[in-house]
Amino acid sequence: MGVETVAVYSDPDAGAKHVAIADRAVHLPGTAATETYLNLDAVIAAARETGAEAVHPGYGFLSERADAARAVTAAGLVWIGPSPDAVEAVGDKLSARRLAESAGVPTVPGTMEPVTSVDEVAAFAERHGYPVAVKAAGGGGGRGFRVASSAGEVEAALDGAAREAAAYFGSAEVYLERYVERPKHVEVQILSERAGEAIWLGARECSLQRRHQKLVEETPPSRFPELVPALGDAAVRVANACAYTNAGTVEFLVDEDGSFYFLEVNARLQVEHTITEEVTGLDLVACQLRIASGEPLGLSQADLLDGGRFAPRGHAIECRINAENPARRFLPSPGTITRYSEPAGPGVRVDGGFGEGDEITPTYDSLVAKLVVRAADREQARRRMLRALDEFVIEGVRTTIPAHRVLLQDSAFVDGSYSTQTVEGDGALDELAADETRPPQHAEPQDGEEASAEEAVSMIAGMPVRLWHPAIAGSIRAASPASGDGRAADGAIVSPMHGTILSVAVADGEDVEAGTLVAVLEAMKMETTISAPTAGSIQHIRVSPGDVVEAGQVLAVVEPRVDG
After folding, report:
1. Spatial CA neighbour of 402 closest among 318, 327, 317
2. What torsion do the CA atoms of 21, 26, 31, 34 make, to the nearest 10 degrees?
3. What is the number of alpha carbons within 13 Å of residue 361 lying toward its C-beta?
4. Helices 378-391 and 401-409 sit at what angle, rounded to 10 degrees?
5. So what's the pLDDT on residue 217?
6. In contact, 271 and 277? CB cutoff 8 Å
């Protein structure tokens, strides 16, 4: 389009790909997001310094923030996204639920006001039953989302959802919904040049998820093709009800009987917009820029329906390649990429953010690349994706590629019956975990030898986890209370990765059982619970909330309980 771009970057990602390929780049000094990407004054100053005319929030820190849209507009710049009023109307999930109801779109049974107490959750569960979903009012993307399956889990769910909501969205407000246990997650891409004139561009299915965050997306959805026009109509009604402009996504849950419910509106471009581009031939970012600059798109709803010039053709699938270990509950895997080779060939697209020699830091999201394929039909697309996954080489960090291979060959994916429970509830990845936990086929290290990274063990959510990061074994030996042979003593509780301690759940001298929650760690936009490896007494707590810890750092020690 001939549009020059200006990148902003922080200290940890000074070597990132977007910095290198933009026409210009401006450094925002600092490490924390609040100092850099969330510092609106700094972002606006960078725009003014470089003569930029507009700010695109992407799908990261600045997206879905009405205050950012207002500040950018007040500075005389163009905000490439919906208006602040529209962002507010749909950004708060309670407001969005009320909006959907007013537009005649069905919603999941839930509260229309924030909840703060265990008693409120109990009263809701009496009417609707367990499980109950506790959800952040101020944002989505799987953040601030907890499920209470029984009364005993309510307090932890409330605390966890509110804590994460405050960290990511600046508000600890949460609300309740009846938890739909085995739905399909289907979303509709919308575009709107002017308020009240939204059109829909097809539907995507995003049911394969971990931690309520998407792993695989496909278009069209695998089941219920007859629902797509009704979903599109519902999405347009919600968008027009709040005078929405620019690009966005309206998300729904589809029950096993084909009933659908409004879930939320993402007032931004989605990560998975790529598959809609592949089947329609439209460049959605170009559409965003044209709408923001007041240029007509020349698109109507008829252009996207059967027989229209941009009607979806064929089938597309996206796999999100993240630096995570799927065999260990998707534990983040920061580090340096030592080898990187992308797949190619007909119908294959890679939107990559890293290359060989690049470091994936623990500071930000773990997304490495988006692998997208398009084919004439779903089965050809599935096979093409498997071929592309086999050709994608990333070494130096663990990635989700093994999980993608397994999931795309799982019978539930092949026949299209998969749901949001397939990954974490149905054991689709059990074989990966089994391979990881199999005892090593080599001798134990002798006195004086280093334990390898594969032999360094921590406890995550009460499970023994062999730590994979190559630097961990040495750091554990250096930092841990040592036994006679120099290895970490039994009972040492170590951090599995670099991150920030969000909370400490125990006190010195407290008696605990194996699996008792000790601390919550945040790293790479993910909370990890760290538990006691054995029953005993907590001693030597060495961290407090807010502390930044390194991989292998000892957080506390459990002195085993001695019977009698």
Report:
1. 327
2. -110
3. 11
4. 150
5. 98
6. no
Please give the structure tokens belonging to residue 184: 């399909």
The dihedral of CA 258, 264, 268, 272: what is its sign?
negative
β-pairing, 198-210 vs 184-192, is antiparallel
Could you tell me which residues come within 8 angstroms of residue 248 by beta carbon, excluding any fewer than 6 positions away? Answer: 82, 90, 190, 192, 239, 265, 266, 267, 268
| Residue whose C-alpha is closest to residue 387's, from 405, 403, 402 | 405
**CA 150 to CA 140: how far, in whole Å?**
23
Residue 216 parent element (H or E): strand 213-219
Q: Tokens standing for 23?
A: 């026409």
Burial class (CB in 10 A: 0-12, 13-18, 19+), 339: exposed
Alpha carbons 317 and 377: distance in angstroms, whole number: 11
The position carrying tokens 């796999």 is 319
DSSP, collapsed to helix, strand or coil, labels residue 63 as coil
Dmax (CA) for the chain in angstroms is 81
Render pLDDT for 318-368 as a digit per residue (tens, 0 to 9).
999 999 999 988 988 889 999 999 999 999 999 999 999 999 988 888 899
Q: What is the pLDDT of residue 419?
A: 96
Amino acid making up residue 450? E
β pairing state of 6-9 and 24-27: parallel
**Coil/strand/helix, residue 417:** coil
Residues 6+ apart with CB under 8 A from 75: 44, 47, 48
Closest CA to 457 of 534, 398, 511, 520: 534
Decide: 199 and 276 in contact? Cβ < 8 Å: no
Q: What secondary structure, in 3-state letters, does 455-480 show?
A: HCEEEECCEEEECCCCCHHHHHHHHC
Residue type, 114: P
Q: How far is CA 280 from CA 77, 191, 201, 220, 248, in A?
A: 31, 13, 8, 11, 16
Per-residue pLDDT tens digits for 157-198? 998 888 878 776 778 889 999 888 899 999 999 999 999 999
Tokens matching residue 90? 């749909």
